[in-house]
Amino acid sequence: MKFTFMHMADTHLGFRQYGHTEREWDFDDAFRWAIDQAVAKQVDFVLLAGDLFQSGSNLQAITFNNAVTHLEHLREAGIPCLVIEGNHDLPPYRAYQTRFGWVRALAETNRLIYLLDATPLEVGAEPVPASDASRVGHYTEPIPGVPIYGIGFNGAATRMVLERFEKFVSEQPAHNPDYAILMMHTGVDGRARERASGNISVSSMRGLRSQFDYVALGHYHMKFDEDNWLFNPGSLELTSQDLAHEETGGIYLVTVDTEAVPKHRVEHVACPRRSFVHKAFSLARTNGPDELYDQIEEFLFGEQEKGAFDTNDKRPVLSIVLAGTSRFEPGLVDTQHIEELGRRILNPLLCRIANRALPPGIAAFNEATDMSRRDLEEQVLEGLFESHPDFSKDLTHWTNTALEVMDAGLKQGTADGICNILGNARTALTG
Q1: Closest alpha carbon to 318 in 351, 357, 345, 344
Q2: Residue 38 belongs to a domain with what CATH number?
Q3: DSSP character for 133?
Q4: What is the pLDDT of residues 111-153, one digit of tens each?
Q5: CB-CB contact of 218 with 9 (8 Å)
Q6: Is residue 404 one of the residues assigned to a domain?
Q7: Which domain holds residue 102?
Q8: Disulfide: which of 96, 235, 393, 413 matches 10 by Cβ 3.0-4.6 Å?
Q9: 153: left (phi > 0), else alpha (psi -120 to 50), else beta?
Q10: What is the average per-residue pLDDT within 33-43?
Q11: Are residues 177 and 292 in the same domain?
Q12: How far apart, in whole angstroms, are the C-alpha atoms of residue 10 and residue 217?
């Protein structure tokens, strides 16, 4: 048996990021791009692993209408779309008991959209398929012999739900499907910088490995995969500047041949998106406002010379954060002048300047909401190296080296690889 499918997640339609209308349309453009990819590739079905909408409690009519319009292209192409609810899709509390939210409303429009929710399944239960007669079910088979189960967002109850579902699956009569898929809206420990009570560990999923060939994830917005089995495509558009330096999210195009080993080939396609230019400047290494302006201007011209925006009609989003314990009074910095520099050099759609620097003599960690995690890590490392006489004179060099080592560790780099990074860093200084 051979077939293809597309896996996407976290489209967040209706997200008016930074209160800007054009950012809301960016998310709509990204969703339309994904739908166009599915139609162009003539996939057999589409998986949407949660968070179709930004808000299940405050959805605008135009957002719902646009979703219907885009999904109509799938229906016209005869491509079913199988969906689970993410935390952003869930209806307001008073309607939660009925679970009748906007995603279910889409399914009820009879547009080849099927909402899957296997959360209540337990040993002894009879699974109900989603079909043309009933658009909501525990599972569905878009192709005979290819069962697809879905488990939406369950927060802190995720582990309990997963254990119950595993027991349910283990008790099912052996029917040896050709290819089985599980969709889930949850994070995975060790594969996301955030840790939350709703995360699962890879080890907790091992009992399902023999039952499912492909686990389609959504929830966290960075792309990752595990052991050619767990796949998280990342959000189509950038939902936070914290992810600006991560690998671009997009879609998975999966080609299945049940006679081959392995059964599938998976290609990740990055979604074209508006560029984000984000940089934090530490005032701990700056002697005054004029020196800071020169540093920022040099950075902006460097971004301009990269030509990253030449192939994209969309103007970038510019975000500059001033951080660290300053050598001078941070209030002397003219943020309006910095914004004028940004607009003159890069002509961005948005220019966001945040002065989070601390006055001289205040040695405190500033966990600013406008700083990305990367910037916070850089700030902490700078503080550590600055206090050590062997490293303070080459502060930037050793800070960047430490960040490179940390990245290698997160990406499961080898000990030899990390030693090479440190060796190269030392050689760069000593020759």
Answers
A1: 351
A2: 3.60.21.10
A3: S
A4: 778 888 888 877 777 888 998 888 899 999 999 999 999 999 9
A5: yes
A6: no
A7: 2-270
A8: 235
A9: beta
A10: 98
A11: no
A12: 10
C-alpha–C-alpha distance, residues 357 and 202, integer Å: 39
Lookup: tokens for 138: 């525990």
Q: 158-170: b or e for each residue (b if 16 or more CB lie within 10 Å)?
A: bbebbebbbebbe
Tokens of 159: 């582990």
**DSSP codes, 184-216:** EE--BTTSSS---TT-B-TGGGGGGTTT-SEEE
Residue 317, helix vs strand vs coil: strand
* H helix intervals, 217-369: 289-306, 335-346
Contact (Cβ atoms closer than 8 angstroms) between residue 34 and residue 203: no
In angstroms, the CA 99 to CA 153 distance is 12
Task: Enter the tokens of residue 377.
Answer: 């890590």
Q: Are strands 224-226 and 230-232 parallel, antiparallel or unpaired?
A: antiparallel
Are the C-beta atoms of 211 and 180 separated by less than 8 Å?
A: yes
Q: Which two tokens stand for residue 182?
A: 């599980």
Residue keyed to tokens 């139609």: 39
User: Residue type for 248, please?
Assistant: T
Instruction: Select from 270, 305, 335 the last residue of a domain.
Output: 270
Give SS3 for 96: helix
- Using CA atoms, how far apart are residues 150 and 130, in angstroms rounded to an integer? 11
Q: What pLDDT shows up at residue 366?
A: 46
At 292-340, the pLDDT tens digits run 999 999 999 999 988 656 556 789 999 999 988 888 999 999 999 999 9
- Cα(309)–Cα(311) distance, integer angstroms: 6
Strand 264-270 and strand 250-257: pairing?
antiparallel
Tokens for 69? 């319009």
- Give, rounded to a whole angstrom, the gap between the first and last alpha carbons of the chain: 59
Write out pLDDT tens, residues 64-96: 999 999 999 999 999 999 999 999 998 766 444
Cβ burial of 130 (10 Å; 0-12, 13-18, 19+) is: buried
Residue type at position 313: D
Residues 6+ apart with CB under 8 A from 46: 5, 6, 7, 8, 38, 74, 79, 80, 81, 82
Residue 363's pLDDT band (cuts 50, 70, 90): low
- Same domain as 335, residue 239: no
User: How many domains are there within the chain?
Assistant: 2
CA distance 177 to 128: 17
Under a CB-based contact definition with an 8 Å cutoff, are residues 56 and 24 in contact?
Answer: no
